[in-house]
Amino acid sequence: MNSRVTQLSVMQKTDLFAFSHTETAKSLWELMENVVVEARDEAMAIDPAEEKIQKARMDTAHAMAKFYTRIRKEIESLASEQMGEIERLANEEILKDRELIEAIVLDQAVNPMAVRRL
């Protein structure tokens, strides 16, 4: 396991974006929620006289819940970021096309007899 934080590549972000919109992702979220609930319920089922064990199990359930929440938010954030990037790139292409069309129209207005080839 790497002990330093690294940035995800564009491809990894794209993969997470695609994954986040699948039934598999929904199933995974539900499974993780169920595991957290089970861990919490197991901790609550421990005899209160065994306070240290119960607290340790509650701490574990709490850590699991935080991990689930963090992973889900991170994937959703990356997916949203990637969608924004895709929209930005699409808008750039639309702008390029519009500028090209405007140049052709302007050229035709200035030189009506000119034949422009793309």
| Proportion of residues in helical segments | over 70%
Mean pLDDT: 87
Low-confidence stretches: none
Number of helical runs? 3
Please indicate the percent range of residues in DSSP E strands (runs of 2 or more): under 5%
Q: Give the strand tally.
A: 0
* Secondary-structure element pattern, one letter each: HHH
Q: Cα distance, first to last residue?
A: 53 Å
Biggest sheet features: none
Question: Structural class of the secondary elements?
Answer: mainly alpha
The geometry reads as rod-shaped
Gyration radius, in Å: 27 Å
Describe this structure in words.
- With 118 residues, the protein is an all-alpha fold.
- The chain has a domain at 10-85.
- Helix content is 80%, strand content 0%.
- The protein is built from 3 helices and no strands.
- The chain has helices spanning 10-20, 23-45, 51-110.
- It is rod-shaped.
- The mean pLDDT is 87.
Name some characteristics of this structure:
single chain, 118 residues, mainly alpha, rod-shaped
